[in-house]
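Input:
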Amino acid sequence: MIYDMKPWAWVKHVIFHPTEGFEDMRWKKAGSIKIAFFIVFLLFCSQVFNTRYGGFAYNPRGYSDIFNIVPILVQSVAYYATWVVANWSLCTLFDGEGNMRRVAIYSAYALVPYIIGNFLSTGISYFITLDESIWFSAIYQVGLWWSVILMIFGMKACHQYNFTVTIVTMIFTVVGMLIILILLALIMSLFQQVYVFFATIYTEILYRVRS
Amino acid sequence: MNLKKIISVLIAAVLALSTMCITALAVDPYPTYNYDAWQNALPSQAGYEVIQTVTYRDIGLERVRDPSSEFYISDNENVNFSDMKDFFISPKGEMYIVDTGNNRIIKLSLDFELLAVYKNFPGSTSKHTIVDDQGNEIEVDADELKSPYGIFVDENDIMYIADRDNQRIVKCAAETPTSARIIQEYYKPETALYESQSFYCTKVLVDAAKNIYVICPAVNKGAIMFSDSGSFIGYYGANRVEVTAEVIRNKLWRKIASEEQIASLTKSTPVEYANFDIDDEGFVYTVTEVANASTDAVKRMNPAGYNILEKTADNNEFGDLVAVNYNGTTYATRLTDIAVSDDHFINILDYTSGRIFQYDERCNLLLIFGFDQEEQRGGFSNPNAIETWGDEIYVLDGRNNDITVFGMTEFGSYVHQAIKLHNQGLYEEAYEIWQEVLKRDGAYYMGLVGVTKALYNQDDYKGAMKYAKLAFEADEYDRAFEANRQEGLRDNFTLYVIVIIILVIIYFVIKYLQRKGKIPQRLIATGVGKAAEACKNAAITVVGKIKKGGNGK
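Output:
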């Protein structure tokens, strides 16, 4: 096989060759960070599509007037970013060979089946009734687990671990993600308090100056 | 004064008068609302409006001091009501008011003519001692009531009175316009099954077999049941324990704690119900007056004491859905009384907000009316009891000392007609009436559901889908959607088959031509081929750009 492929062909290659695809990509030093970011953007789009669209019987809440984009942003982009940061931080300490750029690329490429499953299942829910929901969930689940498998082999190739260590580091990465998110929430509330403090001083001074 | 000033004064006067006209035109003293499909409170039409407010003057209660009147009791008898706790409309259409503070029963016709004032109750057979709050034994003053709290009247005008502070149920019949002769008294059951020390009965009910049901707030095992002869039968229909975090914690502790520790744990007990009503089929309806109680807040029980309400309280909240927080006080729904009309509409009175929530027999919320501004007509201070007669609803206020009569509006009667047909499954007959309802309140939830079902039955699946979306009913939508898809497939089956066959043929032709190596030039020669080439070029440019920037190293 000739491995001088265009960037998009590499995406196709790793998706359909779960076990060797990432190793090939690592060997050829292929993989584009721009495509990775585009995939994350698609992930965000698929989450929005999933929340806002779909057959009425499947997603009545999607027909609500109220739509908050922040949770979706957190569930796609923020999760991805914390995953990359946590995984890189952890695996650097555990003799992983991947740098952050590679972790970002491999993780994003692994998400493609999930995104496609998300789009397809939401799209198909326009044409099926609730009794036929097996199709909806089957497509979604296939996409999800395909992505999980890709993610495992992606991380394995990225850091040159064996299988067990990959699984262990991935579990600890999830713990790390939680810690990062909690710290972020703490910092945000702290900054909010600081902001409120200064805002109060500002208003107080304003009152004094005016009176 | 110059002309300008005069004109401006005139304009001001006209403006002021015009605004006064607007307030005079407003029918309801309060905004009515209803919950839409999204469970938001939206302004709605009034289903009921106040017809009349009746005070002691309207019924001529001064006659209890007039020696020439047949209702004369004594010269210092109170002419006003005092802290009325309950009233009842008998099967004959006469209203019996429990005038708790004055220890008397007032009987009125439904035109609010005074028929009797029962103050004396002679004929008590047994002298009975009771134990009061402090543990003192006191003898019952058998000829008078002492804080009566509840009343029930059967079809023979026999009164059953919950004589609270005398701790007895009095069964009596009218003798003169001011006295009723006691037929029988029911005291605290002398049995080991009855654990409470006292028998402070507040509400009483009698079924067709003349069994007597009594509510004592101190007893949480359900209603106390007596047979007609006065013997204690047992308890009827206790509420379930509401599952709270504390109850779960105690349950877990019980598994691991020692005997002594278990003894010190608080027992999980159900909440007793506050009031009940019985319908003409013998089903007993109960309400529980605890703020935010969701377990068994409203029940409809068969004679065996099982709740047969279609939606049980676990998945259906009664009263206001959201507790209002205002000035540091939380105003949560407290269901104090329930009245079931002849058409099986369930009216629930909320003590906190003074509102009446009307449900149909399947617990669909129909109408909300009433409010808690006691200074205004139709507003309540201490709404204690609710009764229905025909289309009218009566509410008793123990602090305003009046009775408010609600009559049905056009909107209310449309809703009632439509929901009756709807619940019989006559969706198509109800369709026109639901349209009238929706003309007046476009967000009326049951109306949208009714129209959905009617359109589905008329095979208008597209319309049913549209209304199911408005009513936010996913299951109804799914039903209509499936039928619509089926219909679409059936009507266009030939077309679909032809299209599929043509596609298959084209596929095989292309395959064949590809094998012969004839396809590319032929296709490019056509317009389709040119368009395809243009698309291909555009795609190549885009891919090229991405490639230029994103090939990595």
